[in-house]
Amino acid sequence: MGKEMERNGAPKAPMAGIIYGKIAYWLAMVGVSIAAVGSAIYLVSGGYLNKTSLLQDLWKGDSVRTTWAELAGTAGVPHGYWYLGRLGQGDCLAMLGIAVVCIAGVVAMWGVAFGLLRSKGGIYIILAVVVAVILTLSASGLITI
Amino acid sequence: MGPIEFFFVFLGISMSIRMVAVIAGIGGGLIFTSLMMGFTGINSYIIRGTGLLIATSGSVVAARKFLGKGLANIRIVLFAGAPYTAFAVLGALMASYVSKTMGEAGEALIRLSLGIIVLLVALLIMSRGKGVLNPEVKRVDRLTRKLGLGMAYWEASLDRVVKYQVSRSPVAVLLFCGIGFLSGLFGIGAGWAMIPTLNMVMLLPLKVAGASSSVLIGAGDTAAVWQYMKGGALFPLFAAPCLIGSILGAIIGSKIMVRVRAGVVRWLVIAIMFGAGARLILVGISRLSHL
User: Fold this and answer.
1) What percent of chain A is modeled with pLDDT above 70?
2) Residue B96's closest CA among B219, B184, B190?
3) Half-sphere exposure of B168 (CA within 13 A, CB side)
4) Contacts of B205 (CB under 8 A, 6+ apart)
5) CB distance A35–B151 less than 8 Å?
6) Are B218 and B76 in contact (CB under 8 A)?
7) How close B264 comes to chain A (CA, Å)?
8) b/e B11-46 (16+ beta carbons within 10 angstroms → b)
9) Which of B53, B72, B99 sits opposite A64 (nearest CB)?
10) Looking at CA atoms only, how far is residue A85 from chain B in angstroms?
């Protein structure tokens, strides 16, 4: 940062930004692909949550709590990583894809922090680490009420 | 409608919303959430989680282009990202609390409040026109100068480098806190508020404001999406087609936007927002009166 050199008149984009963009883009693309494959399996051969019952619950406007109780038989909402132990099921695989899309921003922000560290980004290293820590805590489920 | 039809209908809807949004120069999260909450009976907590997922995914994909070209200001993204992300999480936690404790009253109040916000945003988009292309910075405050938030980008239309300064970052921090909270609470991307803040308060060039706002949403709202995921709001049958459709819509929209008259689409978006906002207010009042 702060060393944006001009080449052919155009300022060079900061490396930290390029790192963020590439990591986020490719992880999101991988996630969307997994979600598409999982959805296809779910629609064709079913999954952990009965799709017809889920559809009825969605249209009825049932709360998240009621829907989970009816479909998964859980007393409340399961933990945020409910799909990880059942990746053979189409909907769980689709959910993994969605999670990969969501993790893209988290991983990319750590990439920014390391990129800034290498280029001696000053105060921006701290800001990148702060954002990355908030994202990581949120993704890990440690921030809760 | 069976699950397969449902999947493809929502894939088509979210693709169309994103295409129109990209051409109109906005994110699409706000339109998605307000239309779904106004015109379907699906629980608002589920819609808001999915709306945030859509806003985030589109921004994450667009970040490569904006940051690779140096159009988005990474310093602004990090400076605004800290308060925005923290308050987006707080907003999402508040959403979870409302969903758990307020039941039908919460559903009604969320719809009513979002309806008012959507109408105000539609008026904001109408009144601010296209924003200020290259605002003039007359005075840079001490904090902004110390942070060195100003940068430069290649402006293809002028065939030259545009160096810009930034101002009023202390005020902007407060605004980012509020915008992040609203984004997390209502499950809406915040481009509608972020771009005016960056362009009219911090005086960033309009293009840089738009690009930086997009990257910021991708980074900040990710934290809020995880809260909705933890709250069980993301169901693959609904979230997956909306996610896939949104990404496809963003890709198609960015390809056809050069051939479409953006002004017409902008008015279409304004009309949709007035319709969705009015509908949300009516639904909110109706639900409150039945309590």
Assistant:
1) 93
2) B184
3) 16
4) B133, B134, B135, B153, B162, B164, B199
5) no
6) no
7) 30
8) bebbbbbbbbbbbbbbbbbbbbbbbbbbeeebbbbb
9) B99
10) 16
Helices (H), chain B: 3-24, 29-39, 44-68, 74-101, 103-128, 142-147, 169-186, 191-196, 206-230, 236-256, 262-289
* pLDDT above 70 (res B262): no
As a whole number of angstroms, the distance between CA A141 and CA B226 comes to 8
CA nearest B49 in A: which residue? A64
Are A28 and B61 inside 8 Å of each other by CB? yes
Q: Do A94 and B81 touch (CB under 8 A)?
A: no
Where does the pLDDT of residue B130 fall: very low under 50, low under 70, confident under 90, or very high at 90 and above? low
Determine whether the interchain pair B70/A1 forms a contact, defined as Cβ–Cβ distance below 8 Å: no
pTM assigned to the model: 0.89
Q: For residues B125-129, give the mean pLDDT.
A: 72
Total Cβ atoms within 10 A of residue A7: 8
pLDDT, tens digit, 9 for 90 and up, residues B40-89: 989 999 999 999 999 888 888 888 888 888 888 999 999 999 999 999 99
Residues of B in Cβ contact (< 8 Å) with A70:
none
